[in-house]
Design brief:
Elements (H helix, E strand, L loop, with lengths): L6 E7 L5 H9 L5 E6 L12 E5 L6 H11 L4 E5 L3 E3 L1 H12 L5 E6 L8 H19 L9 E5 H7 L10 H11 L4 E11 L5 H21 L13 H11 L1 H10 L5 H23 L5 H53 L6 E5 L14 H4 L9 H11 L4 E5 L9 H12 L3 E6 L4 H14 L4 E7 L4 H8 L3 H18 L3 E9 L7 H12 L4 E5 L12 H20 L10 H21 L12 E4 L4 E3 L9 E2 L7 H5 L2 H12 L7 H10 L1 H18 L1
Parallel strand pairs: 1-2, 1-4, 2-3, 6-8, 9-10, 9-15, 10-11, 11-12, 12-13, 13-14
Antiparallel strand pairs: 4-7, 5-8, 6-7, 15-16, 16-17
């Protein structure tokens, strides 16, 4: 059996004239399979039992194509090759040796330098990449290239694969993320490939400029991922580029002032070119003919000037975008404030049930009947797109279920909601059962987010015995494993928070306060939401006093942890307000539950709505009333919430002194019903004074 028998080769391709040669050389490894992920208008002609051709409908970036191929791979190791990179004999020997004695992690190769073959400018690109990778290896911070790299399939999955939001620099981002997550990132000079793509001088300069522009953008988009990761741009390259850039003003002076200082300036510029840059070009291009070196010498200053211009342009674009985002975010807050004041029906909070499918049947869940339906509801993306576009920006958007992570297109759904409604906070309740799917989906969502905050609420209702009795056998271990799997992402993406939501039920009420202490100690959530068991109707028997006592004890225990600073809290603007709101909200819920007391006018149907899994739009979960259905193409969600029927419903909610213990509605009430807003403001001032 060959060493490559458990190797899967993944090749992203788009109209590559070299694909056949790349595949032929890869076959000499005798791999288990060669997976070609192609998005060309016409499929490539590839034959053989070892070939798996994956066709994509439209052209896609290489990172996404590689991820698609990796998900279908069956080998224990993955070899990624670009469709214009042909394996060399040294590379094959290295791969065979690596497969026999793998050290784990990610191992990257590089282009092979073959003087005299192909265009000089293509070879210059190869020389620069090889020089940078060798220098980075000397500094023990390996540079990573996706043109050819090896990785164990399990490691690739653990790291999360490529960032599909990136057109370039995705290989450097992957290696930086892998290193931050604790995996080995190595460079093997033997793993070299022949780069077949030919470049002109203009093409080479455009390639450098495009990569420099994108590198600036990506490093600032994901600052924590690239923390302490150098630019890998060697000092000699930077200094010679700066020196070369001086040639242009010197040459201009030479032309404009011929006969005075022009000739001396021009001669000085040529001297710099010959005596300063030429030694570096000689070192950069070993064994190249003199003609190729002179061509490199002439184009090198142009590349430096182009890279400098690209970096300046990228900085201007980045900060202009940041300014626009800040201004737009400010306008969103103003718009939300106007909705709170005017109360015309447009929401600041939306809860959408994205699926009614769920793998568990928790004993206190009042959706068990719909979960067991033969065709559980799941609205298509187009319906969400139309609904969110019509209402514009909101402060908070919650995606619930069922179990939200069962839905395969959850990341795409978040992307369209983010684009249309720009919520400042996304939240997902989850039972934590699907560890890898939750990790992969959360990472994809984090890659696409620029200015929203993502909060996962993990359901946890007791110690292992109690939790499994309530939710199902094995569910406690699953939620713990999932939280630990995701925890490293909170270091890389500061807007990502892992919270716990605990529902106090008759089963866990006697130990509710102790459970709060255990959750804070063992699970280290950013925050803890304590929910009270409730019925799914306003007409229900009173809750047992022992249940309410347990809930009150749990809330007091949580308040103690907040005062002691035992939780991480939220880092975004308004995070402290949300934490103080939690305590006040629980006090209101307790008063309603104990005494059936009217504590505040309800904003359900005014500032917040629930979109059910079948498209019905309701003011809240508990009331049976609905104001329309988002699947109806004849009316938009914005029209529904401002319709006469919605206005009458809002009036009835106020006049009937509607009250319940529904946490989501009570959360909005605590923030935006005027009596509670005043109380919350006083609590915030007191908290600030106490902290100072």
């Amino acid at each position: 059996m060959s060493a490559g028998s458990d190797l899967s080769v993944v090749i992203p391709s788009y109209r590559s004239p070299y694909l056949g040669e790349v595949v032929a050389e890869a076959r000499r490894l005798e791999p288990r399979e060669i997976i070609v992920v192609d998005s060309s208008p016409e499929p490539p002609r590839l034959e053989g039992p070892d070939i798996r051709l994956v066709r994509l409908e439209k052209r896609t970036w290489a990172g996404r194509a590689r991820n698609i191929g990796a998900r279908q791979a069956r080998g224990s190791h993955l070899l990624f090759l670009d469709s214009d990179c042909v394996l060399t004999e040294p590379a094959r020997r290295y791969i065979e040796s690596h497969l026999r004695d793998s050290q784990g992690g990610l191992v990257s190769g590089s282009y092979r330098s073959v003087p005299g073959r192909g265009r000089a400018f293509s070879r210059l690109q190869t020389h620069v990449l090889r020089y940078r990778m060798d220098r980075a290896q000397v500094r023990r911070r390996p540079l990573f290239s996706s043109a050819s790299f090896l990785v164990e399939r399990d490691v690739y999955r653990q790291v999360g694969g490529f960032n599909e939001e990136l057109a370039t620099y995705e290989d450097v981002e992957l290696s930086a993320r892998a290193a931050r997550l604790g995996y080995r990132v190595a460079y093997a000079p033997e793993l070299e490939v022949d780069h077949r793509k030919e470049l002109s001088a203009a093409g080479l300069m455009a390639d450098f400029m495009r990569k420099a522009f994108n590198a600036f953008q990506i490093r600032r988009r994901y600052p924590a991922v690239f923390e302490k990761v150098p630019s890998f741009m060697d000092g000699r390259i930077i200094s010679t580029w700066l020196l070369g850039a001086m040639l242009f003003p010197a040459a201009a002076i030479g032309v404009l002032f011929v006969g005075t200082i022009g000739w001396p300036m021009l001669l000085a510029a040529l001297s710099v070119l010959l005596f300063s840059l030429f030694p570096f070009i000689v070192r950069l291009t070993p064994a190249e003919p003199i003609g190729a070196r002179l061509a490199s010498l002439l184009v090198w200053p142009c590349i430096g000037a182009g890279v400098g211009a690209a970096l300046v342009a990228s900085a201007l674009v980045w900060y202009a975008r940041q300014g626009w985002r800040m201004m737009r975010s400010g306008l969103d807050f103003v718009r939300a404030g106007w909705r709170v004041v005017r109360r015309s029906g447009l929401p600041v909070q939306v809860i959408a049930y994205v699926t009614s499918r769920c793998n568990l049947r928790c004993e206190h869940c009042f959706y068990k009947e719909t979960l067991d339906a033969p065709e559980p509801g799941e609205l298509p993306l187009a319906v969400f797109d139309r609904a969110t576009r019509s209402i514009g920006s909101v402060l908070w958007f919650a995606l619930g279920g069922g179990e939200p992570f069962i839905r395969r297109d959850l990341a795409e759904l978040v992307a369209l909601v983010r684009r249309n409604s720009r919520p400042k906070v996304f939240s997902f309740p989850t039972n934590g059962w699907y560890t890898e799917r939750t990790f992969e989906t959360s990472l994809r969502i984090l890659h696409q987010m620029d200015d929203s905050n993502l909060i996962l609420f993990f359901s946890l209702d007791g110690d292992e015995l109690t939790h499994d009795q309530i939710r199902g056998e094995g569910s406690f271990c699953r939620v713990k494993a999932t939280m630990e799997r995701l925890r490293p992402l909170t270091e890389l993406y500061p807007r990502f928070y892992l919270n716990v939501v605990m529902t106090v039920t008759p089963r866990n009420a006697p130990r509710a306060a102790a459970l709060v202490d255990e959750i804070v100690r063992d699970f280290r959530p950013s925050a803890l939401s304590i929910n009270l068991f409730r019925y799914h109707s306003l007409q229900h028997p009173p809750l047992p006093p022992a249940l309410l006592d347990g809930y009150e004890a749990a809330v007091k225990a949580y308040a103690g942890h907040l005062r002691r600073g035992a939780l991480e809290h939220y880092g975004f603007f308004g995070g402290r307000v949300l934490l103080l709101k939690e305590i006040l909200q629980k006090e209101l819920i307790l008063r309603v539950a104990r005494h059936d007391e009217f504590v505040t006018p309800c904003t359900a149907g005014t500032l917040g709505y629930v979109i059910m899994e079948d498209g019905r739009v309701k003011p809240c979960e508990i009331l049976p009333d609905q104001i329309g259905n988002v699947t109806n193409p004849e009316t938009t969600l914005a029209e529904m919430v401002r319709s006469p029927g919605a206005q009458r419903l809002r009036q009835r909610i106020v006049e009937d002194h509607c009250r319940c213990t529904y946490e989501c509605a009570m959360s909005t009430n605590t923030l935006f019903s005027w009596p509670m807003t005043r109380r919350l403001g006083k609590a915030l001032v007191k908290d600030v004074l106490w902290s100072s």
